[in-house]
Amino acid sequence: MTSITFIQPDGHSRSLGLADGTSLMQGATGAGLDGIVAECGGNAMCATCHVYVDEAWAGRLPPLSDDEDALLDGAAAERLPTSRLSCQITVTPELDGLVVRLPERQI
After folding, report:
1. Rounded to an integer, what distance in angstroms lies between the CA atom of residue 1 and that of residue 78?
2. Percent helix, strand, coil in the chain (nearest 5)?
3. Measuring CA to CA, how many Å separate 49 from each of 34, 96, 99?
4. Are 42 and 83 in contact (CB under 8 A)?
5. Which residues lie below 8 Å from residue 81, measured CB to CB, with a gap of 6+?
6. pTM for this structure?
7. At 106, is the pLDDT very low, low, confident or very high (cuts 50, 70, 90)?
8. Distance between CA atoms of 49 and 52, rounded to whole angstroms?
9. C-alpha of 106 from chain center
């Protein structure tokens, strides 16, 4: 299991042990984490699983695809330089300790 910390807009955090090979979105919604809506179920067709990756980790993730980049332009919350779709981040042992922040709103 890989430990990922999700920080809510109010500052409360929750660390989850996620199975390698799943997406952050799958792990978070499966654990009942509030704040990730995931309307499209992880098919990269909406931006309701938008997260802000901690700056210390941003460079360790694979680059944005063109589709992810376009979807983030339409996200309900402000797009920041570290914005990503959690459905597009696959959990690997190298991400152990990753920290992501949830935006104020997803829809």
Report:
1. 31
2. 25, 25, 55
3. 11, 20, 15
4. no
5. 58
6. 0.94
7. confident
8. 10
9. 12
